[in-house]
């Protein structure tokens, strides 16, 4: 299991560059693991793109980038038949200050009595 996130340097360029980096690293690691054991199943155990927060390099942290990242990574994973687990289901505000990107990897956010999908807030 590999936990792979886009490097902020590459992510700042575009979601496409970030996907290229993550998938290229996955294939490099998978090939190395397969040399050790050709029967091993290598999966991406964690990946993600924060939807909000501040980082020093200006990487775009928006819901549209989060959705685009997951759609493109999902398309690649389906085509390559790779299992991917996304990080994470829900925002975790306790993981730092509210404006910290660490708190905003979730697909849903807590809205009192219910959770709301970020890409469809209505």
UniProtKB/TrEMBL annotation:
It catalyses: Hydrolysis of (1->3)-beta-D-glucosidic linkages in (1->3)-beta-D-glucans. Pfam families: Glyco_hydro_17. Its EC number is 3.2.1.39. It comes from the Eukaryota. The keyword Flavoprotein does not apply. Belongs to the glycosyl hydrolase 17 family. This is glucan endo-1,3-beta-D-glucosidase. It comes from Dinothrombium tinctorium. The lineage of its organism: Eukaryota, Metazoa, Ecdysozoa, Arthropoda, Chelicerata.
């Amino acid at each position: 299991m590999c936990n792979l996130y886009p490097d902020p340097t590459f992510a700042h360029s575009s979601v496409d560059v970030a996907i290229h980096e993550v998938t290229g690293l996955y294939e490099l690691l998978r090939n190395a693991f397969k040399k050790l054991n050709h029967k091993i199943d290598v999966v991406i155990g964690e990946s993600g793109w924060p939807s909000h927060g501040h980082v020093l390099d200006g990487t775009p942290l928006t819901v549209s980038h989060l959705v685009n990242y997951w759609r493109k990574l999902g398309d690649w994973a389906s085509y390559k038949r790779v299992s991917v687990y996304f990080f994470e289901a829900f925002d975790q505000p306790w993981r730092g200050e509210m404006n910290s990107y660490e708190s905003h990897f979730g697909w849903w956010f807590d809205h009192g009595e219910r959770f709301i999908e970020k890409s469809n807030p209505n």
